[in-house]
Amino acid sequence: MDNSHKTTLSQLYPPIAYDVNGERFLMQCEVDGNAFDRLQSSAETLLQALHPQDSGTMLADWERLCGLKIDLSKNYQDRVKRVIIQLNAMGGLSIPYFIQLAEQIGYQIQIKEFSALQNDLPALGDVAQFNEVSSDHFIFIWRVTVLNGDDNIVYFRAGQSFAGDHLVEFGDPIIEDFFRDLKPAHTYCYFAYQQG
User: Fold this and answer.
1) How far, in Å, CA of 114 to CA of 103, rounded?
2) Where are the domains of the chain?
3) Which InterPro entries does this one have (predicted)?
4) What pLDDT score was predicted for residue 102?
C-alpha cells in the first residue's frame, strides 16, 4: 500500500469533475505530493529535535543555542552530554551543586577546597602547575577528584607507546571543560583521577 501524499491527493478529487487517471492530473499530484512528503519529513525531524539525544543532525542547533562551540571531532554521545550539562546548569556555586551536575552525566566526584589559614594547602606536586599563582591565592584553588576515572588513565606501554609519550596521561575533556566554564571566574580548578 502506497502511503505517499501523491496517492492521497489523487484520491481526494471527485472522479466526475477530474480525469483522475489523466497524465497532467497525476503529474500535478506527484509534484504536490512530493512537497507534502518533504514537509512531513521535516516535521518529523523537528519533532525528534525536541530532545538533544534524539536530535540527529539538528544537534548543532542545540549546541549553538546553548552557546557551545560545535566540535565535530567529538562523537555524538559526547556532544549530547555537553548540551545536557549546559541545559541543567541553571546556576550555583556550592559543592553539592557541582557534585550533582557531575552525577547527571555519570561522574562520581569529590571536591576539596583549601584553606591557608588552617595550613590546608594543595600537595607540592599539585601546586607546581600553579607557578604563576601567589600563595595568597591558594584559598581560591579547588580540586575535583574523579572517582570513576578508570577509563581516563592511559599508561605508557612498551610496543604501544612511542618515545616522547608521557608515562601516565589522564584527563576527561568533557567534565574538565564544563567545570572550567562554570566555575567562579576568580578560582582555579584542577583535576585528579582516582582508580576505583
Assistant:
1) 23
2) 5-48, 51-88, 93-193
3) Phage_Mu_Gp48 (IPR018755)
4) 86
Q: What is the pLDDT of residues 17-70, one digit of tens each?
A: 788 888 888 898 889 989 998 998 888 877 777 788 888 888 888 888 887 888
Q: How many CB atoms lie within 10 A of CB 32?
A: 14
Q: In whole angstroms, how large is the CA radius of gyration of the chain?
A: 28
- Decide: 43 and 15 in contact? Cβ < 8 Å: no
**Strands annotated E in 133-182:** 141-146, 153-155, 168-170
d(CA 77, CA 82): 9
Specify the amino acid at residue 83.
Answer: V
The string of DSSP letters for 46-112 reads: HHHTTSGGG-GGGHHHHHHHTT----TTS-HHHHHHHHHHHHH-----SHHHHHHHHHHTT--EEEE
Report residue 49 as a C-alpha cell: 529535535
Query: What number is the average pLDDT over the span 131-144?
Result: 73
The yes-or-no verdict on residue 134 having pLDDT over 70 is: no
Main-chain dihedrals φ then ψ at residue 44, nearest 5 degrees: -65, -40
Contact 114, 138 (CB under 8 A): yes
Q: Do residues 188 and 140 make contact, with C-beta atoms less than 8 angstroms apart?
A: yes
The whole-model pTM stands at 0.49
Number of neighbouring beta carbons within 10 Å of residue 80: 20
